[in-house]
Amino acid sequence: MDLFSKRRSKHSPSMHILVVIFLVIQNFTALVQSIGVNYGRVGDNLPPPAQVAQFIKEKTLIDRVKIFDDNPDIIRAFANTGILLTITVPNGEIPNLTNIRYARRWVNDHIRPFYPQTKINYIAVGNEILHWGPQNLIDNLVSAMKTLHKALVVSGISDINVTSPHSLGILESAQPPSLAKFRPGWDVGVLAPMLQFHRETGSPFMVNPYPYFGFDPNNINFDLFRQNKGYYDRFSKRTYGNMFDVLLDAVFVSMKRLGYSDVEIAVGETGWPSLGETFEPQCTVENAASYNGGLVKKFNSGVGTPLMPRKKFETYIFALFNEDQKPGALSERNWGLFRPDFTPVYDIGIMRGGQPNPAPAPASAAGKKWCVPKANTTDAALQSNIDYVCKQGLDCSPIQAGGACFDPNNVRSHAAFLMNSWYQSMGKADYDCDFSQTGFLTSTDPSYGTCNYL
Fold first, then answer.
1. What Gene Ontology cellular-component terms does the record carry (predicted)?
2. What is the mean pLDDT of each run of 10 residues along the chain (454 residues)?
3. Alpha-carbon distance 25 to 31, whole Å?
4. How far is CA 85 from the centre of its chain?
């Protein structure tokens, strides 16, 4: 303590200035830290890949993207953007890739034409193979990963790593995390040789932790990175402040049991939907903003987890867009950070300076409805709706320059505000939201920032 006091006293003025400068730089760096996102395309109203790549580069802090196929149009679109890209080998290709000649042809066809203009950092071999099977894919997975890596090296490509994303169905249990372990059969038969491959090649073990799928209404604050009483693991004597950390530490402990605690972990998917069916009350804009916003803050902080302190995990949020063609419940079509017109569904702090960041809308109010455009409505139809409403004498000043709802300045956003204004002012009958079948009613308030929908 005396030594520290003397050194501090000796260098007090200059050290103080240096510390202040360091803190300013550190805080600025934290503000501009970026995060990854999954770019799914199961929709009939999504913008072209070139527009998507330009938007991500110019308007957001996202610096890495994961796609679920090897679509050449998407890979080409990210050329010369500086954005890191993870491409995915279709599941059905796995048995073929165990053959080195086939693997080399695959590299020549799917990587060589775009490399190095497109910064491909990972090739994901399949997606959640252990979870979904079938057995012949599971049996060939590690061999395919090894052979594809060899094909890359033979082709002179040494800076693209090979991995494979896993659902947390690979765990027998996750709570308490100190007792977690991989499922018997997969642990030694598949995951141990895969982890050995990751160790030898320096590639990450990629997992998809989703607190959403274990949602417990009694622990919602714990799931959503909100203030809560915490969870105490009496075996490790660690206290957890959120479920995301529980899941990652459960993966870490399971890896450690097999002797691979030194292998890096990457988060291939995680997220929370913003809208769902009546039986999915947890799917709200407020909850999605809380989870993904908390995730970004955690990522930027670099604090790690209780068992992996100061560890920063490469993380990809699911998903970039709401995808209107995904099957299943309404929640499946509402995982996106953005609508197809690039307007944010909610704000998690990933827009570049000067861009509008709509504030999270309040939770749905019982019995209230708002009129908004259908996802597949054309700009021409929406402009027609705007013209019609304004000609009827409704106040259109909020969407004009300087108005509370001018930003984001695009047809869909302006039409949404005016269509709802018309619906509310005409008496709230369902047919007042028809607009030649381009409008629909939602129970989620679309208000944002200073733009307050009636």
1. plasma membrane; side of membrane
2. 31 42 40 78 93 95 97 96 97 97 97 96 97 94 98 97 98 95 96 98 98 94 94 96 97 98 98 94 95 94 94 96 94 96 92 56 59 84 91 88 87 91 86 85 77 86
3. 10
4. 14
State residue 369's pLDDT score.
Answer: 86
**Amino acid residing at 135:** Q
Beta carbons of 292 and 316 less than 8 angstroms apart: no
Residue 366 confidence (pLDDT): 52
pLDDT (0 to 100) of residue 283: 96
**CA gap 313, 237 in Å, rounded:** 23
Task: Choose among 86, 188, 210, 207: nearest CA to 142.
Answer: 188
Closest alpha carbon to 453 in 420, 426, 425, 431: 420
| pLDDT for the residue 33 | 53
E strands, 386-443, are 439-442
Q: How far apart are CA 170 and CA 179, in angstroms?
A: 14
Of the residues 58, 93, 128, 332, only one is catalytic, namely 128
Cα separation, 155 vs 149, in Å, equals 10
Coil, strand, or helix at residue 292? helix
Cα–Cα distance between 229 and 219 in angstroms, integer?
A: 10
Which residue is it, tokens 């490509």?
157
| 439-442 vs 370-373, strand pairing mode | antiparallel
Backbone angles phi, psi at 332, to 5 degrees: -60, -25
Q: Which two tokens stand for residue 429?
A: 């009958």
> For residue 450, what pLDDT is reported?
77
The answer to whether 198 and 255 have CB atoms below 8 angstroms apart is: no
Peptide bond into 176 cis (omega under 30): yes
- Sheet containing strand 64-67, edge to edge, reads 161-163, 119-125, 84-89, 64-67, 36-39, 315-318, 265-270, 205-208, 166-167
Query: What single-letter amino acid sits at 19?
Result: V
Active site residue 269: yes
Cis peptide bond prior to 134, omega within 30° of 0? yes
pLDDT of residue 237: 96
Q: How many CA atoms lie within 13 A of 117 on its CB side?
A: 11
Beta strands at 181-182 and 171-173: parallel, antiparallel or unpaired: antiparallel
DSSP percent split of the chain into helix, strand, coil, nearest 5: 40, 15, 45
Q: What is the dihedral of CA 402, 405, 410, 416, to 10 degrees?
A: -150
* Whether the bond into 72 is cis, omega within 30 of 0: no
**Is 128 a catalytic site residue?**
yes
